[in-house]
Amino acid sequence: MLGRYRRPRAERRFFLFVDVIGSTAIAERLGPLQAHRFLAAVFSATAEPVAACRGEIYQYVGDEIVVTWTESEGRPEAGPLRCYFLMEKALRDLSAKHSARSSPPNPACAAALHLGEVIAGEVGEVRRAIVLPRRS
Asked: pLDDT by residue (tens digit) across 45-70?
């Protein structure tokens, strides 16, 4: 069964890099288990906006979420920008819910957006992954 990225190919993609603000201090204050639960709640809350904007969660790196779109998928309705603002709203809603229960701190995020050409292709034997290194 050949996958879409069995053979590497060039693509123009948007990448939205979203970081949880102050996560290190939050983790130190909450401790490992509660910090994990906090990040899980943040990642869960932001998944719906990603799906609504037709993005793909490429990876989680610590407290960062990397979301991607092909250029043709991301351009309509400024999908990546709309996604970020919907993520912010989802986190404000999560904050309101948490403050009502005096739960962990109010999550907030910061982001950077990039559009460029990458080479997309499968790597690995035991655990396969699709990698999107930037093209020089």
From this structure: 999 999 999 999 999 999 999 999 99
The beta strand positions in the chain, using DSSP E, are 9-20, 56-61, 64-70, 109-123, 129-131
Radius of gyration of the chain (CA): 17
CA 83 to chain centre: 10
The sign of the torsion formed by the CA atoms of 107, 111, 117, 118 equals: negative
**Residue 56, beta-bridge partner list:** 68
Q: Are 52 and 60 in contact (CB under 8 A)?
A: no
Q: pLDDT (tens digit, 9 = 90+) per residue, 102-131?
A: 555 688 899 999 999 999 888 877 766 766
Q: Is residue 30 a contact partner of residue 104, using CB atoms and an 8 Å limit?
A: yes
- One-letter amino acid for residue 80 of the chain: P
- Nearest to residue 50, comparing CAs of 99, 101, 88? 88
Asked if 58 and 68 count as a contact pair (C-beta separation under 8 A), the reply is: yes
**CA–CA separation, 72 and 69 (whole Å):** 8
Question: Helix (H, G, I), strand (E, B), or coil: what is residue 26?
Answer: helix
d(Cα 41, Cα 36) in Å, to the nearest integer?
9
